[in-house]
């Protein structure tokens, strides 16, 4: 099957070769071709270039993209999309003045979601999760990472990971699974965190690895959750099973989680709302991708990751939704692009690089998605007629996507 997209007003994020990620000043460089064509063969990008170089050919399908733009789909490298129910009542509690931490201390928060998930059947959890996955694909997400971490028992963590596996089997978007057993200390272990860590290391991790249910592992390294020492122990245990870390750090406090991530060669360190100069220094010249989650900052009214300071210091940055019921109940990457520009002062070029090539790297998918490159999957966004790609962050809340193609097939 050959599909030709022709007369594309601007083809965005074109890279002749696969690159890992962009950092510092290069984040402000977004290569494009104006008046372009894109050729897709059997779901893979086969060719692209300027319309003036298009040779005559027999395509099975020709799509005239006059006035419209094409970009690679968004790469959402941090989500908790598999969850049960919602936490709307906590949202109302926060409106009335309680903080996220106060709600968590009262047994709400992650523990509230864990209780709901434990009481939900695997089939029902799958049904709830697939609705969210389909929704975010329609919003332009074409590769996604999903974490466990609302199970907090052997049985329920495995249940979550099996749901992620079923999503992988039934959808063609690339999905990466992350084991986040160390998301919170369950109430049964309230005064025995050590017991829970032992359970994770000695019982849950070996099962996750044996059943090949995750590519990555995560720890919520934060005051009141898991200390740097706990984090290092858990990462060390996961390393034995070949699980690469992608960790939650510096959401509320800078306690050394960034340094632990770098030490254990984490693929990414995520959140980073609180960053010291030492944290920024620690990330320099490493392969660990910093990931900012502006939806969480927006929803919890906490600081935004200091993107300007980090990029100006030469670091790369990826952006993701953190889609979860407590701190970011939205998987809309278009909002993330906009919030990054409006609130974090990232240029449209920086924001688009952060949600495409850098996002792909942050989940180990940079060879498959994240740019318009021959040989990559044809996971692409066709915009409505717009004047420039800067219109996407500018027109916040107004969808500029006309259609989404996954492996060359139009969705919906
Ligand atoms: N901070 C830790 N975990 C999630 C939120 C979990 C929740 O509140 O349910 C996050 O990334 O924001
Ligand atoms: Zn998260």
UniProtKB/TrEMBL annotation:
Gene3D superfamilies associated with the record: Metal-dependent hydrolases, Urease, subunit C, domain 1
Entry keywords, A to Z: Cytoplasm, Histidine metabolism, Hydrolase, Iron, Metal-binding, Zinc
Cofactor binding note from Swiss-Prot or TrEMBL: Binds 1 zinc or iron ion per subunit.
Residues of the Amidohydrolase-related domain: 69-409
Cofactor: Zn(2+); Fe(3+)
Record field: transmembrane: none
EC number, UniProt record: 3.5.2.7
Pathway membership: Amino-acid degradation; L-histidine degradation into L-glutamate; N-formimidoyl-L-glutamate from L-histidine: step 3/3
Binding site for Fe(3+): 78, 80, 248, 322
Catalytic activity: 4-imidazolone-5-propanoate + H2O = N-formimidoyl-L-glutamate
Chain sites annotated for binding 4-imidazolone-5-propanoate: 87, 150, 183, 251, 327
Family that this chain belongs to: Belongs to the metallo-dependent hydrolases superfamily. HutI family.
Protein name: Imidazolonepropionase
Organism of derivation: Flaviramulus multivorans
Lineage summary: Bacteria, Pseudomonadati, Bacteroidota, Flavobacteriia, Flavobacteriales
Gene symbol of the encoding locus: hutI
